[in-house]
Amino acid sequence: MLNEFFKQFKSGTDIRGVAVEGVAGQNVNLTDDVVEKMADGFVLWLAEKTGKAPEALKISVGRDSRVSGPHITELCTGRFCAAGAEVLRCGLASTPSMFMTTVDLGCDGALQITASHHPYNRNGLKFFTRGGGLEGSDIEAILEFAQNGARPDAKEGGSVTDVDYMSDYAEGLREKIRKEVNAEDYDLPLKGFHIVVDAGNGAGGFYADKVLEPLGADTTGSRYLDPDGMFPNHVPNPEDATAMASICEAVRESGADLGVIFDTDVDRGGAVDSEGNEINRNRLVAVAAAIALEGNEGGTVVTDSITSAGLKEFIEKELGGRHYRYRRGYKNVIDKALELNARGINCPLAIETSGHAAMRENYFLDDGAYLCTKIIIKAAQLRKEGKALSDLTAGLKEPLESREVRFKITEKDFRACGERIIADLTAYAETQPGWQLADDNREGVRVSFDKEHGDGWFLLRLSVHDPIMPLNIESDSEGGVDVIYSQLSRFLETTEGLEV
Q1: N or C: at which end does the chain have fewer Cβ atoms within 10 angstroms?
Q2: What is the mean pLDDT of the chain?
Q3: Strand 300-303 relative to strand 322-325: parallel, antiparallel, unpaired?
């Protein structure tokens, strides 16, 4: 069992903590000693997983642009090397590329030092094997080794080699574009395209100069390509309103055909069309589904729970696929897609509205650069037909109104409290006129309403990690969100343990 100190570092399937001072009330807990213990824990866990001695392991290490990355890199490579392992130091890298080192470079394990879109003072450790990202139980095992101070025996013969794997990874994306666009000028398939990139000063700047420009694309007007771990311009996060406003503005100002944006470590992506309109959240899922279902007619698309009613209709009626609405958490949707495929169900895509998209053709790896590459390929293919990317999702019905409210749970055992509220609301919903419980919901409570009662739906669920109950409401009528919320409020006011 993890004690309270080490339990604080577990963030789903990652390790995260505070790495540098600078934010009031947030003291450093990823100290040198703690990080080294975690690195040792990974070596011990990986040795058990692979059946190899620590000195026989080959481990890659990369990082995003945050300021504490270089120091944590040295701490971890030092411990891996001390155990006798062969270490490939990849420097500034995307998280998906680090997984790919297990495929292309034969690494037994990979470590990416990242805290995704979190502030500059935070950092974390994200691990991979050839089987993909680790599960939460694996993270607990690594932290237990660290908590107990378990260390591999010191061995001679460890080595550290600097490797420029990002150039190889970028070449893989370029070749995919060349092959699938199959332009008359094969080597310059993006000639005549103007595509801007907003990397938010994260690790995604490579996409402009190592992927797009060598293929003939004009990338003038791109923003924040240089890595800067203080993130001075905006949070690198496709879900952030300021970040999306930045890439939309870049497209409009430069007159670009398309814009793409990444989070800090490039495992998420978003896009903007030539009019400066976001291809994000439900629309991003719709675009990805349309691409993934080509050649997979009748296939299943797994999404998180907060997708719109219009998206389900688009996937099932417009695209002829099946929509499997599952729980929030990118690892949850990926694991469900893997499970469905193992059961013989054709499932080519797992995607969360946050921008995590994992395709079966790409190892079910959530890779923002790969997603944007597929979107760019489709845009080029459509241009040959005299069509635009927006034509792909012309049949998608989007809600007139939407709102998200996050209620704080005040009870110490927040999970038990949230589960009690969900059970009570389920029973309550069954008694209310005009309320229809969704028959395909797998997280929280999802209720649909006819036009008289709000013309939309709500979903109340328990956060994956935090003492929070997020509420999402959508309506197809003006004022409908307020109508739905007022009905739900009558129940919420009777609950205990929820700050409403």
Answers
A1: N
A2: 96
A3: parallel
